[in-house]
Prior knowledge:
This protein is mainly alpha-helical. About 65% of the residues lie in helices and about 0% in strands. Among the domains are: about 80-330, no CATH class; about 460-590, no CATH class. The protein has 27 helices and four strands. The radius of gyration is 27 Å and the shape is globular. It starts with 8 loop residues before the first helix and ends in a 12-residue tail after the last helix.
Amino acid sequence: MGKFKFPSAYTVLMAIIVFVAALTYIVPAGQYDRVMNPELGKEVPVSGTYHLVDANPQGFFDVVMAPGAGFYDPSSYEAGAIDVALFVLVIGGFLGIVTKTGAIDAGIAKVTAALEGKEVWMIPALMVLFAAGGTVYGMAEETLPFYMLLIPVIIAAGYDAVTGVAVVLLGAGIGVLGSTINPFATVIASNAADVPFTDGMGLRIAILVIGFIITAAFLMRYAEKVRKDPSQSLVADMKESNEEFFLKNREEGIELTGARKLILVLFAASFGVMIWGVSAAGWWMAEMSALFLVSAILIGLIGRLSEEELTGTFVDGARDLLGVAFVIAIARGIVVIMNAGSITDTILFWSENAVSGLSEIVFINAMYWIQVVLSFFIPSTSGLAVLSMPIMAPLADFANVSRDLVITAYQSASGVVNLLTPTSGVVMGGLAIGRVSYAKWFKGLTMTAESNAAVKTAFTGEWEGTAGNDVKTLDHLYAKMYGYGGDDTLTAHGIETIIYGDSGNDVIRGYAADTQLGGAEEAKRLALAIVVLKQVRMAAAEQQTLIQDYQRAQHYQSLVFKEWIVRNSREQFDPGDEIALLRVRCDLLLAGYEVDQAWLPC
């Protein structure tokens, strides 16, 4: 039997459409009454007005119509994703013409030569630009042109397609996650919640900065690992294919002539005008499509392309992104099925009931996870804000939670989900352009999340909001750290930096000396000890007692290890390799943590 291969984006999205259609047979149909909000220019649901309506389950015909309805509503002819799809096709033609002139190849060669030995710093430099677009005006669909532009540059620098996709998608995504003045998320949500959008700004800036640093650092590390060893790439099996696809027809040693410089200036100016138009002039897809169509013609003329070359190249470029246009429309079809089946408001109503009457801490955490679920079904940040904030924000008053925290929970949840949800046309479109399967992208993001969670666990002693005596078993603690995936981010140097300056950490420094830390496994074990000491907050005198008891506990190491092997079936490990872990086990008991006396007689 052959190895399972994860299905394509088209299959994943159609499966979700079928799943949502099935939900319309199970989830009761219902609606909120709606009123026009003049500030938003949209109708918003009214809290307390939810009522059941006649069911409208979506059958086979509705499912097969959903992708087409994703382009436009067949009954009202209202545009759906057709404007975005057209924009993508125009962008494909535009990039095809720019590439045909040789300007892109000459520019890549110039940039690569200038950054020789410093290529990795191109990653945070580009990411900060996308993050700025995300936090200022919610850059999302506007990122689609940049994939075809930047992925060839990234691959030419020795990295892979995943790095190129991540620079754009994670860069803009982190910006949206930490939206500060984003009118399509923060401002709309604040208006719907009836609070100033500046409330909670400090927390959002902190989320933006910390999230960016962690994400950029992880991506830089991954990219350098791939550059040094291409087999470490998530798409290592497509290395030659991607190089051929993204660097096809690339000419070596091509000269950066005056005409090509002018083309690159016009090329960059087109994107600058696009950003200005969207953020300041109220432009959207139709205007952007017209902009790049005109720019493509001008660049073709400057590049001295014949009429046949210009039109043929434009069509060929659009053909390259035709699959992306289909992905975007199919993703939109999911929302079409939900709305037609009248289950969107029911899911919101259930969410409203789930958080009603909760305490402050439980409320805000529950709100975050509810927004995560809602974001999966409603990937549009503005759509989710208009739908959920008029209902959810007033509930914060009863839980004694400020409404700006509800907004921050909403935009953080939406931002995280929109980095990976298959229901987002932007995510699936970007992956399709980069030729990265959804399974591999999900795996890469999971690695990032695990790394961030492990660092948080090790250095703050927090896990899943639990503190104090609620988490005391060693197996639970060690499982949290052992699931870290073998990453070496928690190096001895990093841990010693955290330790340095903390009072009374002689015991930990002793661990460092005894184990001669140098790798991830030792670092994880040491991190456990740090968690213990930080939580127990021992006084210096108590630490001296611990040291004495710890020395006496050495006599039990052999017995402890034998029992540990029986308990965990890990005979393949060298006993000497586990000494640091055994010491932590003993210290946990001595520090008052609950450890089974039958197998740990310290």
